[in-house]
Automatic annotation (TrEMBL):
GO cellular component: cytoplasm
Alphabetically ordered keywords of this record: Cytoplasm
Main localisation: cytoplasm
Lineage of the organism: Bacteria, Pseudomonadati, Bacteroidota, Flavobacteriia, Flavobacteriales
Protein name: Universal stress protein
Every UspA domain range: 1-148
Similarity comment: family membership: Belongs to the universal stress protein A family.
Compartments it resides in: Cytoplasm
Gene3D superfamilies: HUPs
Amino acid sequence: MKKVLITLDYNPNSEIVVNKGHELVKLMNAEVCLFHVLSEMRYYGMQYEPFMGYEGYAFPVDFKIQEEFVKVAKDYLDKTAAHLGEKNISTHLAEGDTAKMILEYAKEWGADLIVMGAHHHGTLEKLFLGTVASSVLEHTTIPVYMVPTGENRREAD
């Protein structure tokens, strides 16, 4: 395995995912890419007339906010790369459906392994929304290394 894609979200537990993924990368002497997905930004700029008594979208949106979201996300990736303390770490930012973007970029980049966190969600959230991890696992052809990040995870000593 020569290329490892480490996926990150804004959850503080991402540090656990990055550190465990980086341990694998060092053991395999592999190339690493830190990857983050922004939700589809186009939805933030849509304007609708009030519907069902809801007026939440009937206001003008500052389109510069998209630039701010991108800037913050790039800064997050850059600081995460710096946290690992190596020069040859690449980063990639995508926009869209998280699971779909992970799968598409992993294939495009030629990843041999995807590293992602297994966040613990409530039963209703899993039932109605599913999880990014389960969607990736259901559709991937690339091996996935799941890092437990919940309260019940075992600490490695």
